[in-house]
């Protein structure tokens, strides 16, 4: 998160940074294309947007689990709470991709 305050200056210098998502983006492209061809997904979301959405929905629960958990609910990493959050993310992403 600190790297973002520096506008990614250090991360941009890493020659391997683009390769980190080299596998994920093509996989998501294939999943989205298959879903569109089957008439299950709409065409408004590309692979980078899907990756951003999934990451954004998951990141907060992990990065802030202790502080958010202390303020709102204890132990966000408890199996039953973690499973519920996973289901929420899956539902939000799939409903968006379906166009609902």
| Uncertain runs | none
What Rg do the Cα atoms give? 17 Å
**Chain-averaged pLDDT:** 87
Report the major sheet.
none
- Beta-strand proportion: under 5%
Run of helices and strands: HHHHH
Structural class: mainly alpha
Could you give the count of β-strands?
Answer: 0
- Count of spatially separate domains: 1
Tally of helical segments: 5
Short description:
This protein has helices at 2-5, 24-37, 47-63, 65-71, 79-98. The chain has 5 helices and no strands.
Protein model, in words:
This protein is mainly α and 100 residues long. It has one domain (2-98). Helix content is 62%, strand content 0%. The protein contains 5 helices and no strands. The longest helix has 20 residues, at 79-98. The mean pLDDT is 87.
What descriptors fit this protein?
about 100 residues; mainly alpha
Topology readout:
Layout: H1 2-5, H2 24-37, H3 47-63, H4 65-71, H5 79-98
